[in-house]
Amino acid sequence: LEARRHNFLAAYTDIRGAGALAWTDISTGAFHVMACPLVRLAPELARLAPQEVLIADGLDADAVGVIEQCGAAITPLSPASFDSRSAEARLQSLFQVKSLEAFGNFSRADLSAMGAVIDYLEITQKGRLPLLRPPVAQVAQRMMQIDAATRRNLELTASLSGGRAGSLLATIDRTVTSAGARLLERRLSSPSTVVDVIEPRLAAIACFVDDINGAEDLRGTLRRTPDMDRALSRLSLDRAGPRDLAAIRNGLSEGRAIHGAMEKADMAPLLRDAAGALAGHDPLIDLLEHALVAEPPLLARDGGFIATGYHAELDETRKLRDEGRGVIAGLQAEYADVTGIGSLKIKHNNVLGYFIETTATHAQKMLSPPLSERFIHRQTTANQVRFTTVELSDLETRILNAGNRALEIEKTLFQSLKQAILDTHEAISAASAGLAELDLATSLATLASQENWVRPVIDESRDFVITGGRHPVVEAALKKSGEPFITNDCSLSAEPDHSALILLTGPNMAGKSTFLRQNALIAILAQMGSYVPATRAEIGLVSQVFSRVGASDDLAQGRSTFMVEMVETAAILNQADDRALVILDEIGRGTATYDGLSIAWATLEHLHDVNKCRALFATHYHEMTSLAERMAGVENATVAVREWEGEVIFLHEVRPGGADRSYGVQVAKLAGLPSAVVSRAQAVLEALEKGEREGGDRQKALIDDLPLFSANPASAAQPARPSKLDDRLKDIHPDALSPRDALDLIYELIDLAEN
Ligand code: ADP
Ligand code: MG
User: Fold this and answer.
1) d(CA 324, CA 320)
2) Of 63, 425, 534, 657, which residue has the fewest beta carbons closer than 10 angstroms?
3) Dist CA 415 CA 301 (whole Å)
């Protein structure tokens, strides 16, 4: 089990068209349910990324298809497991309540999905249920909706290559506890759409940004807190050892220290609540501190984890056991004396237990009377003869009994300590959640102050105004190679009757995709309740984020790239509401020019007139820039490049206006295309452009005007004849030059170059 990730088991059900999804992480006890119509299923599964999904036999094939695509294992159960009436009874008895109303209003479908989860746990955990917390109903409208393709595309929790490395999550994760890391992943996967949820989180971070030293101290303590959630779950499932008891002890006592240190008056409410959950555990901490040794062993059956002074009888039997060992030493001295054999030893092995050992030379004496009356022969080996006595075996029995008795007592004590913990499991879970919240707030504050992030301003408008925005992952990658990231502004403020749309053109490699994504990431970060990589950010709540990239390959699913692109675009046009933030990156790229252009064109019009959302639209169809004149709320922008001596230099600056050309040929040259191909391409391009300017048919222009390949002098692969400068350079032997000669030579070379 990965400590820093959740491990969800989910169940999906559909009762006469009303769907519900329930899920739990049995390693932490979290238990949730939400209404989930079939159309929402794919995005919700993408958000949760469950390991296993339970379904009823005979579930609708469409739903099964969606679940198969999310990559989880599917476990079909009999419809009886999903029966909503027995589910209700099961839930009531599990949580020991007469009615579930205390936890919320659950629909038949909700009950059915939750019931299936519990039924399945009962079967698989052999009747021993994990410590589930009471179910919490989640409401989709309170969460920013991000579908699977968008998550993948924006690389929120996993990079396109699959792993966590290179994802946004990996880049922003500064948490120091596993529970904190899990909370971060949860928040990043489900940003909120409720100002009253987001603001308290931002206020908590602000507290620590203002007191970064305090945050650092707190993180030092947090680093030492063990994973209480998982210890608790092992305890409840009877898979625990003494170290789990110690984890609860250490976690709660570090928590108490944190609570003590945080008793400041002017704390954000979220922090006050989190710290509050850390108080009031004194009786349990005292009990565990008293009962346990500092560093207990792994397994309860080995004993040795209960501290001396905690249990009188245990201390007594342990003394007996240990004293017995002392008595043996005395006995050995006595026997050596009685037999007159100074080298006689009492030893122990697992076959014989305790025995007296002497060398073969001395043995004869002990095998004959009078000694043979007392010493009973047990075994003769090559060099040794072994004996026992009645008193030795009595003593052995007593030592053994004491040892067993001590283990027995420790096992009972383990059970009672475990029970003491389980009796207060809710308070312990709350403390653990409090620690996770503190870890998250301090880690985001640390991130914000290390990386210069700013607190976003969030309101109910439909504005989206970012100043000095950055892409955190690209910036981190550039930092490694010592290059600066160029910040960019983005101003998208939607009017009531139409959308706000930026149409971004510019050459390949200019930074279009980066700009698009950074703005989506800023919205997501802000609404998960984090500071954002910008100097200023005003964000009117975003309900949905969509991100699509043209011609992304999806071979694994066996659909052609263009088909995928169109399916995904259709999903946006059908679903985006007027609070959505849509990012379309070179849509239409996957087909022939005119097809692609027409699709991109119509898509943009639909977004503008029908969806009325905020959108960033990158395209290489320069023809589309004319749309800005016709449509209010559409603005052109381009990523600036400078041309210098036939080379293109990327400035990565987003500016108003359209791109004049795409510099594809220059980029190809940068990429190392053979120079003959580059110059040929340049010639073709010029002919095409000339043809177009003259209003002719492109194809005709190509055929009529373009000199044949071989006839194009620039395409010749051989280098030009060596110049005087080349000749002179060839003659130079730098090792033989004095500094003075070198300087003269430079003047000479400059002269040659100029003539
Ligand atoms: P496009 O989509 O226009 O082809 P990308 O967004 O993929 O371009 O960017 C190409 C590369 O340019 C990125 O990998 C990154 O290294 C660099 N880049 C993009 N934006 C910036 C920026 N704002 N500042 C610095 N480098 C950038
Ligand atoms: Mg791109």
Assistant:
1) 6
2) 657
3) 12
Q: pLDDT category, 540, cuts 50, 70, 90? A: very high
Ligand nearest to C-alpha 479: 1
Q: Which atom of ligand 1 is nearest to the CA of 512?
A: 3
Residue 491 burial (CB count, 10 A): 15
Q: Do 467 and 532 form a contact (C-beta atoms < 8 A)?
A: no
- CA–CA gap between residue 434 and residue 179 (Å, rounded): 10
pLDDT at residue 695, rounded to an integer: 63
Residue with tokens 């009325």: 612
Question: Average pLDDT, whole number, for the chain?
Answer: 87
| pLDDT tens digits for range 59-105 | 889 899 999 988 899 999 999 999 999 999 999 988 888 888 888 88
CA of 509 to the centre of ligand 2 (A): 7
For ligand 1, atom 20: residue with the closest CA: 511
C-alpha pair distances (Å), 593 with each of 96, 371, 621, 622, 700: 65, 110, 8, 12, 17
Contacts of 566 (CB under 8 A, 6+ apart): 599
For the CA of 618, the nearest atom of ligand 1 = 2
Alpha-carbon distance 367 to 364, whole Å? 5
Q: How confident is the model at residue 366 (pLDDT cuts 50, 70, 90)?
A: confident
Ligand 1 atom closest to the Cα of residue 470 is 23
pTM of this prediction exceeds 0.90: no
> What Å distances lie between residue 172 and 197, 442, 472, CA to CA?
21, 12, 8
Q: Are 190 and 47 in contact (CB under 8 A)?
A: yes
β-partners of residue 75 are 54
Q: Are residues 572 and 548 in contact, defined by beta-carbon separation less than 8 angstroms?
A: yes
Given ligand 1 and candidates 505, 509, 648, which is best to mutate, with the most ligand atoms within 8 Å of its CB? 509
Centre of ligand 2 to C-alpha 499, Å, is 23
Smallest CA-to-CA distance from 172 within 186, 188, 154, 159 is with 188
Q: For residue 214, with 0-12 CB atoms within 10 Å meaning exposed, 13-18 middle and 19 or more buried, which class applies?
A: middle
Q: Where is pLDDT greater, at 155 or 677? A: 155
- Tell me, in angstroms, the distance from the centre of ligand 1 to residue 510's CA: 5
